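Session log. Operator J.P. requested a structure for one protein chain; no other inputs attached. Running the standard single-chain path with token output.
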Amino acid sequence: MPYPELKARALNRLNIADHLLSTTYTIVKDPKLLVSVIENLLQALQHAIDAIIDFEQSFHDIKHDQKLDIFRRKIITKYSFDPKILDFLSELKEIIESHKKSGVEFTKKEKFIISDNNYNLKTLTLEDAKSKYVKTKHYITEILKIISKYD
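Structure written below.
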């Protein structure tokens, strides 16, 4: 997929997450929506990473599992990105994976709680989702700024 389309998809997912946080959640107040916010943030960040990889054009015909490795080894260094972006991406993925594999999920006092089969709990709050939104927006803005600068 060409990088302009990936940029548009990244921004679209970021806007969906923003709408879920700022509008939908304030009306519905259902903590289950927070997982949808995280899913959209994850997809937005993945699309932005794919966009800069495609923008580089020196990495044609690579497999999906190689993209993150190329981003880690080549692009972070070349453009001096904060390497913590990879930890953050892993954190978002972990939340979604926990949700998919969870044995039990429930809400309690405006928190969404995900439990695995060993009863290890992950808690997701509105504040968590908002801070992850801000961080995702920052990383995507940095990535898209590089693409715009050299495009």
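Operator note: The chain has one domain: 3-101+127-150.
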